[in-house]
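Subject: complex prediction, re-run

Hi both,

The earlier run crashed halfway through, so I resubmitted it with identical inputs.
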Amino acid sequence: MSQAQTQAAPTPRRIDTWGAIVRYSTLSALIALVLLNVIFTKNFVSWRVLDVNLTQVAAIVIVGVGMTLVIATGGIDLSVGSLMAISGAIAPIIFLNKVVVIGEVHVAVAVAMIVAILLAGAFGWFNGWLITRFRIQPIIATLVLFIAGRGIAQVMTNGSLQPFKLDAFQWIGLGRLFAPASASASGFHGVPDQVVIMLALVAAAAWALKRSLFGRQILAIGGNERAARLAGVPVAQVKRWVYCINGLCAGVAGLVVIAINSSSDANQVGLGMELDAIAAVAVGGTLLSGGRATVGGTLIGALIIQLVRYTMLANGVNDDVAKLVKAALIVAAVWLQGRGRA
Amino acid sequence: MTASATPPSVSPLLAMRSIRKAFGGIPALAAASLEVAPGEVHALIGQNGAGKSTMIKILTGYVARDEGEIAFDGEAFEARSPQDAQHKGISTIYQEINLVPFRSVTENICLGRESRRFGLLDWRAMHEQARTLLARFEIDIDVRKPLLRFNTATQQMVAIARAIGFKSKLVIMDEPTSSLDEREVAVLFDVIRQLKQSGVSVVFVSHKLDELYAVCDRVTIMRDGRTVKTADMAAIGKLELVASMLGRDVAQVAKSATAFGDRHGRISEVVLAADGLSAGHKVHDVSFSVRRGEIAGLAGLLGAGRTETARLVFGADPMRSGALTLDGKALSPREPIDAIRAGVGFSPEDRKYEGIVPDMAVAENLTLALMPQLARAGVIDEAKQRAIVEKFIKRLDVKCSGPDQKIRELSGGNQQKVLLARWLAMNPKLLILDEPTRGIDVGAKAEIQSLIKELADQGLAVLMISSELEEVLEGSDRVFVLREGRSVAELPHDQASEAAVMAAMAHGDTDLIPEESAS
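This time it finished cleanly. Structure:
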């Protein structure tokens, strides 16, 4: 598709302007949504509302960061939700001392988190290996773990719910930074830890995409894989790392979700996350065919989707209707991209 | 500049007058005009950046003009899109094939105007229609097979057939011959003459001057966004044509046909030796060598296995058997990166498909291969990158608004310079150039040729593939001729006459259709 489109590209200047409009429109849509809420939603301007929205969006953004890199190479990863379930299943098994007993709780939690994230990363690497070794289309290759991954998580937990209450672990979903000593009148309770993690990941990925060798190689592969290979870019290696990073992100997000829920349910953790993450990337203005990516856009895209949902719920609209609006948003974003390229 | 041509006696089929167009403030066309008479084959020539493509894009509705009038078939003409232009009788054939490779020939030809019966596709009628159309081009293939099963030349013919099938009054051909061999060019010319007889006009864009004289009636020459000359082909000499295009004196142009000057065979150590290479079904037994400071030419007809051989040396395709040595050491690259590390650079034939990363900036395209060396702890040293990029932009005279301009906005010649710079920045021992001047205008072509010569004079070993006999003959110190995947001759510069090379290409075979039998 890209060949025909680049051929049809008649006026380079206009494309740049359109690119700017696409990016600008994402941001202005977010601003418009906020303004709309300020006017119509009661008690919108409060720390509590900001808190709720950011807390809910964090997991999507964390997965979205990895997904942005995957899509930048021209790929896609459907398995992230299942990888979250795997990460969410293995961590409680370890820190609840079900397999081996680790006396010191902080050590147990640290081991649990590291093992969970690395395991998800390893499965991500496996996705990349399938794609590069056997030249399977990413959508098919990652379908393997999309299906099998949740099964693996269920087998690990025997399909049962793992409830827990452990502050040493749950800081990742419930903890806060800069919390005031006493409850302040403003309602400010500090910054949720997962929001800090989210912002750190967004910043790191945005920086890497722009400044690092790895980032340039990702964009070169997405922009023209053949040319990249002929210029000595280690295409297979870069792709494996990208899918691995995506797995690591999903692992972190899995931990955040079970920490919020105080329980791990292999059937529920990360369910539908792949679609939310891809939607955030698309709405954010990353080119779905690869070669052009913006991690900041993904953050904005996720915020828009979250805010739309919040707006509707706060104003008494059914959640199912909110899904329709989400779908409409994606269509609008992809349409804008099409305009930008034509 | 005078418009010396006799005006067509009948009113023109197409008249574009005082066309202006600027892209982001930079004028691409200023007072350009073009007139085509009914049933006329009209050449449109000019250097890259002269405005030919913009003229065509305006005519076919890809871009809108800023100012000017267009009249077509006696009426004011306005195309909102290429489809709209096609409906109104103007179709276009681009140098890149604009078809759907996975679908059958029939589907490609009938795309957008399928025959229907009772609401279903009438395949029988459509296959018949496709077959009839292709018969006009003396092409007899199974139209039910997917397009990608046929070679590039056949695909190009399908594209032409598709365009003409629309009952066009005007067909625009943008470098239609760039991927055809001589026999197919002859067929194409017959078709053009046929079109002409049936009253269809053709606008013919080509960089190959001989072709213009062979088939065109009149010529419009553009330079810097203006129409500088319109003349009858019979009344204008080759030299004058080139001089008008370049805006130079006739005497200046007369010196040499290509910018290589005269090459002499060199006696120096061998950099690359290839012995008995074979791979796939296109390369069977190829041997050659390239010495330091030498330009070695690989000649052969379309499908002789030249590109495939080059890709083997570079590790882009797997080798079945044979041996490569680089500077005396065995070379067995499994991936391009291995060859690059050993000191080989490769500039592919199809810039758009395998060379440039269109959405990336000139700077990033130029340093794509060098990038690992520019990074410290994984972070690109942007100051160093910029310094290198600016050095090469200046050295190769790349015309761009700056290192940050996207490469797809550059003309073909300037893109090629950036790709050359990509390898020069690596300081390679051996540079493989596959069709280094294809689709590039006369001026940039001369620049690139003299650059290649200069590089060889400085000691670089160059392996050059070119379908233009003139380029291989004048440019190479030695010419290796391939035929159907086998080395058939090695000719030093003074023995590499046109006759000798052509004889080698055709040697021992009465059937001169190499790509058919090779596939």
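The radius of gyration of chain A is 21 Å.

- K.
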